[in-house]
Amino acid sequence: MAGEFDLINKYFTHQQVTRSDVALSQGDDCALLVAPANTHIAVSTDSLIAGTHFLEHANPQWVGHKALASNISDLAAMGAEPAWVSMAITLPSPDDDWLEGFCKGFFELANAHDLQLIGGDTTRGPLGITLTVQGFVPQGKALLRSGAKVGDKVFVSGYLGDSHAGLEVILQPSKQQQPHASELERRHYCASSRVALGILLRGQASSCIDISDGLVSDIQHIMQGSNVGAKLHCDKLPVSSELIEFTQGKRIAQQYALKSGEEYELCFTLPSHLVESVHQAARQQNLMITEIGEITDSQRLSLFDNGQAIENEMLGFDHFRS
Amino acid sequence: MAGEFDLINKYFTHQQVTRSDVALSQGDDCALLVAPANTHIAVSTDSLIAGTHFLEHANPQWVGHKALASNISDLAAMGAEPAWVSMAITLPSPDDDWLEGFCKGFFELANAHDLQLIGGDTTRGPLGITLTVQGFVPQGKALLRSGAKVGDKVFVSGYLGDSHAGLEVILQPSKQQQPHASELERRHYCASSRVALGILLRGQASSCIDISDGLVSDIQHIMQGSNVGAKLHCDKLPVSSELIEFTQGKRIAQQYALKSGEEYELCFTLPSHLVESVHQAARQQNLMITEIGEITDSQRLSLFDNGQAIENEMLGFDHFRS
Fold first, then answer.
1. Does residue B315 lie in a domain region?
2. I need a labelling partner for B178 at 20 to 30 A (CA). Which of A126, B29, B239, B317 fits?
3. Is B131 found in the same domain as B159?
4. Quick one: how far is CA A30 from the chain centroid?
5. Among the three residues B138, B161, B183, which one is the final residue of a domain in this structure?
């Protein structure tokens, strides 16, 4: 069986990205890095654990993508530009096929974002991946959860709900017969990372978060952070045509959109006077954003469907909620 | 059962250390940090997995200490000063007693090193902890593995071998009757972190590594990095009186010292002309260092005992070596 050092040499040292701010990468006790002046370093850590966040037999290329995408998404939500990533990977045994697939998904996404793997740890144990990503944002320009003001408009990027449908396909074999099941399963693992949108929103959005626990849960983090309420119009939630066919109706698709976790789309708020210019800037970069509600002074979340108040009994995903 | 957010609030937000270079800590998508000018940021990631690196029923306070000590040790080996740490913790279920003990061990050590917890992730799954620590070292002053020169003297800090004896006590119930068994078990988990020594060695040591895989294995990382050989005098290896009583003899204790992993002592090389001044500086700070050999041009590792060459069949610990 190959040793730890062989594994690292074989899979984790052949990346295309070589950044000038990495003075020393893998191969010593620490990496040595140089941060640019006048920036904040944004840091986020996320774990993907087999059995909790993905099934052991999931396509390893998708797992590699998802592990990194969920981390990059946190940088995007702060308006930060990705730079460095550290990887801790725990494997029951060295599995060449799995590692090759995993690294393909991981490095394709890392290369696309000029993100350099700077080191990590390879250990034996139950399958899991923990990544720590770091990026840069000019000081004072980071998008926080705490700046939403009453009257601001609430927006989301992309389409919501596909990830939840994909999870159903994974967990309920009967759903594999429904339209677009395979594509929705792929989307569950292979979410986009909204880095360009996060950068566009610097100095514009009054608050921002990535949708990892589900819209209903994540908008409440903005509400708590900003000490405000929010009103969401469920009939405005953007859903893909594939999801509508899968759920056999737009209304059900929009219920998926409300609760779907691990979407990695951004939810953000904009002062009214910036709505038009941000719409225009997003169109120019071909970034889809949709207005879905507004910030209120009520301290609570109100859901509406075609102007009618509806009950909110859907909660976000919490790993330790029983 | 408490939710993820409750857990984080209860255990991971009550630290004493608040650093001025942390602009934003836990509670948003990312932490925001400011690195000092003209420094390198040193970054290291290490995982501790239950069943691989510690037993599930191990004292959680010791596990908390060990998880952080092994990471701080990588900073020490580069001559870096600890600053920030991110924690990913995976738990089968939220266990208040375990978390309370773990946090006690973790934060005591973090506080002692002015190290601030800046964020992380709490997930459900098999017990494991992955930490990413960051620290600072002036540019050009980091201690690398690659600078050892022929004729340099080889040193280690502290005593070696206790960790291996402690591991035997943990894994072999019969050893629990031997002298100092409990104390050696404690030392296996509660190694010191040689940060002060690493800082003292900046601009002095020609190479440095922390002993995590075992002296025989780790000195070979210096040899490979520096393209040199080394000669070690086993009779000079520093061993504690407790270990000598445990092994019933100094020679056996020194065999433990050769192969003992997870020691987190430093192994470093010094040019001859610096040996006396570094000895003196170390004494002033009450830091124990011992000369154990020298760098050679042979490209191989030679072991000697009282001047006699001995066989080297002991290899370091490799998580994936079968």
1. no
2. B317
3. no
4. 27
5. B138
Question: Residue ranges of the alpha helices (H) in chain A?
Answer: 4-11, 60-77, 96-112, 162-171, 181-189, 195-201, 215-226, 241-247, 250-259, 275-284
Residue B240 lies in a domain: yes
The minimal CB distance from A29 to the residues B37, B40, B78 is found for B78
CB pairs under 8 A between A and B: 229
- Domain shared by B134 and B176, yes or no: no
Residue B321 lies in a domain: no
Q: How far is A10 from chain B (nearest CA, A)?
A: 14
ipTM for the whole complex: 0.90
Mean pLDDT of chain A: 92
In what side-by-side order are the strands of the sheet with B301-305? B207-210, B266-270, B153-157, B289-296, B229-233, B301-305, B308-310
CATH code of A79's domain: 3.30.1330.10
Residues A121 and A166 in one domain: no
Co-location of A185 and A50 in the same domain: no
Size (chain B), residues = 322
Are residues B159 and B134 part of one domain?
A: no
> Mind giving me the DSSP string for B123-179?
EESSSEEEEEEEEEEETT----SS---TTPEEEEES--SHHHHHHHHHH-GGGGGST
CB B19, CB B83: distance < 8 Å: yes
DSSP string spanning B51-105? Answer: TTTB-TTS-HHHHHHHHHHHHHHHHHHTTPEEEEEEEEEEESS--HHHHHHHHHH
Query: What type of residue is B197?
Result: L
Question: Closest by alpha carbon to A213, among A314, A318, A76, A321?
Answer: A318
- Per the CB < 8 A criterion, the answer to whether A138 and A197 are in contact is no
Q: How do residues B115-136 score in pLDDT, each as one tens digit? A: 999 998 999 999 999 999 999 9
Domain that holds residue A57: 4-138
- Specify whether B48 is located in the same domain as B169: no
Q: Which of B190, B210, B213 is nearest to B198 (CA)?
A: B210
| Facing residue for B29 by CB, picked from A33, A125, A209 | A209
Shared-domain flag, residues B158 and B306: yes
Asked if residues B165 and B245 have their Cβ atoms less than 8 Å apart, the reply is: no
Mark whether B77 and B184 lie in a shared domain: no
Q: Which residues of A touch B80 (CB under 8 A)?
A: 30
Nearest CA in chain B to A75: B30
Q: Model confidence over A54-87: pLDDT tens digits?
A: 988 899 999 999 999 999 999 999 999 999 999 9
**Domain contains B320:** no
- Which stretches of chain A score pLDDT less than 70? 1-9, 312-322
Structural domains of chain A, count: 2
User: What pLDDT is recorded for position A322?
Assistant: 34
SS3 state of residue B265:
coil
Q: If you ran DSSP here, which 8-state letter would residue A312 be given?
A: -
Of B113, B138, B163, the position where a domain reaches its end is B138
Cβ-defined contact of A123 to B53 (cutoff 8 Å): yes
Q: What is the CATH number of the domain that holds B289?
A: 3.90.650.10
pLDDT in tens, B20-64: 999 998 888 999 999 999 999 999 999 999 998 898 889 999 999
Instruction: Select from B11, B30, B133 the residue whose CB has the most chain A CBs within 10 Å, as the one to mutate to test that interface.
Output: B30
Closest Cα in chain B, distance from residue A260 (Å) = 18
